[in-house]
Design brief:
There is one protein chain. The protein is mostly helical. The chain has one domain. The protein contains one helix and no strands. The longest helix has 37 residues. The chain starts with 7 loop residues before the first helix and ends with a helix.
Length: 45
Amino acid sequence: MSSNQFSPSCISRKVLRLVVDLKEMLLEDLSYAVEDLEDMKPFFR
């Protein structure tokens, strides 16, 4: 009985996918934040 339902490779693949998705989301949020800052720059002068 080899229970390869939770094989390390499968888990690591899922974790990697999650990490990649999170990174992409964070990068999108960062780019939006930078754009907002660029829009607000004239008000700080």
